Amino acid sequence: MSKCLIYLLIIILNFLYLSIFIINEGYVGINSYNNIITIYKPGFHFKIPLFNNIQILNSSLFSTNFQINKFILKNKKDLIIHVYIIWKIKDYKLYYLNTGGNLIHTEIILKRQVSDKLYLDIDKLNIQKIFNHSSNFLKKSLSNYDNNQIKNIKENFISKLISQNNNQTIINNMNNMGIDIIDIKIEKVSFSKDILKNIFYNFNHKKIKTLK
Fold it and tell me: Of 57, 73, 95, at which residue does a domain stop?
């Protein structure tokens, strides 16, 4: 075999090596060339070396955790909200066009969407009024609980209240970006110690007046 044939064989083998790629189960490949987006499902595929840059995307569920600090309530109180979002890519073409397939950019968009919605919802809340109108809370005397138990009752109540808010706007916005929102949860709502003391004092003061 001549040297020319050997070199030719090496070139062909290298070309095949660079042309063949595999998409594993649970992933999807995506390529954008000349404004044409191609989606590759799991399996063996061919590409043109140097011209086709295949980006691999995870097709399973994603979870995004973050916290939103310093919500300013109507009574000038601060609180911290811990949010948990479960989502997945629904339309890979739309997702790529809107995010470039960048997970960090996607999470920034998600956080902004959820944060803006929560800011609007919480701005409408009057925390003291919520507690004063909680029948389950008022049926029991504050003296039966220590501060930690009262804190848990209040935080659980607020969490449930916020969790029941309609997130359809967020879901629709993310659907338009090729993202399917599975769930949005408020994991925890935290007050500073000074804020809790102030709320407990005001609540207890009103309770004593009522009992008199």
Answer: 57
> Is 78 found in the same domain as 14?
no
Side-chain half-sphere CA neighbours of 171 within 13 A: 9
pTM for the model stands at 0.69
Query: Residues 6 or more apart from 199 whose CB is under 8 A from it?
Result: 77, 127, 128, 131, 154, 191
Same domain, 181 and 78: yes
What is the sign of the dihedral through the CA atoms of 167, 181, 188 and 143? positive
Residue ranges making up the domain that contains 14: 3-57
List the pLDDT tens digit at each of the 212 positions of the chain: 577 887 778 787 787 777 788 889 989 999 887 778 888 888 888 887 767 788 889 999 999 998 877 655 555 556 778 888 999 999 999 999 999 889 999 999 999 998 888 877 776 665 555 555 444 444 444 445 455 655 665 666 566 556 556 788 899 999 999 999 998 888 777 766 655 566 566 555 555 455 44
Q: Which uninterrupted H or E stretch holds 119?
A: helix 103-123
